[in-house]
């Protein structure tokens, strides 16, 4: 249940990120986090299972948390750089409260995401979930050209506050389609 909440919440952030990225010329293709479904099988020994779209190939790791607790981008491909930009965007969008830490997938379709947060009770987590990764990310993230294209600020460890869009210089009339009411 928790895995579904985490992946599907990250998917919602990714949809907003995609809308903002598509509004910016020259950004190009955007990663998509696929939905993860929880299914109930009452006649089975294990009554709950998760299900998601078949990605059609072996997953590649784009951004991972290493055993020593460090966050690492696996390569410098366009996909990896845009996943890093997405991480930066979520971190900034949530004022340093949430970070998508692990991202893998096939092409532009992402799965098996994880998060780090210092928000107690976020997505049913009773305790903080790797808050040290938030600080480590802010100190270690190297902005790339896609961070610049979106106008993201250079990161500094943030104090928890409310959430708002990290896009700079946007007027309210230019908000993302998902944000319009």
From TrEMBL:
Biased composition (Polar residues): 172-181
Listed GO MF terms: ATP binding; protein serine/threonine kinase activity
Protein name per the record: Alpha-protein kinase 3
GO terms, biological process: cardiac muscle cell development
Pfam families per UniProt: Alpha_kinase
Domain Alpha-type protein kinase: 1-155
Organism: Fulmarus glacialis (Northern fulmar)
Source species, domain of life: Eukaryota
GO cellular component: nucleus
């Amino acid at each position: 249940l928790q895995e579904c909440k985490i992946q599907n919440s990250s998917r919602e952030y990714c949809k907003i990120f995609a809308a903002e990225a598509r509004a910016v010329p020259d950004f190009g293709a955007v990663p998509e986090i696929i939905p993860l479904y929880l299914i109930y099988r009452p006649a089975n020994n294990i009554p709950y299972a998760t299900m998601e779209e078949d990605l059609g190939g072996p997953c590649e790791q784009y951004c991972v948390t290493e055993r020593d607790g460090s966050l690492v981008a696996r390569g410098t491909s366009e996909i990896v750089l845009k996943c890093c930009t997405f991480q930066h965007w979520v971190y900034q969008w949530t004022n340093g409260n949430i970070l998508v830490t692990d991202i893998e997938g096939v092409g532009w379709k992402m799965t098996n995401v994880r998060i780090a947060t210092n928000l107690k009770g976020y997505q049913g987590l009773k305790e903080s979930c790797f808050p040290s990764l938030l600080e480590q990310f802010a100190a270690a993230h190297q902005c790339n050209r896609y961070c610049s294209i979106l106008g993201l600020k250079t990161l500094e460890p943030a104090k928890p506050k409310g959430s708002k869009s990290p896009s700079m210089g946007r007027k309210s009339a230019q908000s993302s389609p998902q944000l319009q009411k």
